[in-house]
Amino acid sequence: MRLEFASIASGSSGNCIYAASGHTRLLIDAGLSGKRIEAGLGELSLTGCDIDAMLVTHEHNDHVDGLGVMSRRYNIPVYATEGTWANMPEKVGKINYGCRNTVYAGETLIINDLMIKPFAIPHDAAQPVGYTITDGVEKITVATDIGHITDEVKENINDSTILLIESNHDVDMVKKGPYPYYLKQRVLSDLGHLSNENCGKMLRDTVSGKLKYIFLGHLSNENNTPVLAFETVKNTLEAEGAVIGGDIKMYVAPRYGVKRRIKI
Ligand SMILES: [Zn+2]
Ligand SMILES: [Zn+2]
Fold it and tell me: Which candidate, 207, 198, 197, places its Cα nearest to that of 157?
């Protein structure tokens, strides 16, 4: 096994992704209560003691809820951009000085045997990033909370073996749905979230021979369904000749709970 991947939670009510090599275990975001993160790790037969670092994408609650609790309880180092650190919600609480690490978009950092590269994403947070994680051969990319497709996101997604990408909403469902006007505008804006259709387009432009697993993530509870997200993205990709279910496996990451643990 080179790398391992599992989604512990993905969606607007909490995000926590597990990525690991044989020697290094990471969480990308900790947007659930400490208790729920521990339960998710338990599903993987792990505890907080096994986690070497937590990488934070941005300061929104659904990405940092249990960050402080987990870092304090297990002394886990936290990595985030300057802007994320400066805007961390108060309820995250104090994180030990020795556990605070700053990352910079575009600058690779090394944690044990893994190379980790944060990259800028367009989203209405202070300094949000996605992450690529590689052992030099295979690559895992986590890219959610993306308002629109950018070249930088595409370049970083490219050549992933495992990709978790946002497929947040169906545009018609947002327009006709229950959200108040300001929230509809926010979701649909360039700094909001990626629609099923744009997710399909982003994949269409970046799909490479290396890609083996796609996880559609951060689905909206009100403005999307797992089937709609899956079908929309699948149709876009198959129109381009990619075979879903053949060379490429595609799944919807559940809102809560580990459904699949992928080892490559
Ligand atoms: Zn989010
Ligand atoms: Zn967000």
Answer: 207
* CA of residue 58 to ligand 2 center, whole Å: 7
The reply to whether the predicted model has a pTM over 0.85 is yes
Amino acid at 59: E
Alpha-carbon gap, residue 76 to 96, rounded angstroms: 9
How far away, in angstroms, is 109 Cα from ligand 2 center?
23
Express each pLDDT in 215-232 by its tens digit. 999 999 999 999 999 999
Residue 12 CA to ligand 1 center (angstroms) comes to 5
What is the three-class DSSP state of 193? coil
How far does residue 168's CA lie from ligand 1's centre (Å)? 9
Residue 64 Cα to ligand 1 midpoint, Å, equals 10
- Residue 123 alpha carbon to ligand 2 centre in Å: 7
Is 3.20.20.70 the CATH classification of the domain at 3-257? no
* Segment 95-125, tens digit of pLDDT: 999 999 999 999 999 999 999 999 999 999 9
Question: Which of 97, 94, 54 lies closest to 78, judged by CA?
Answer: 54
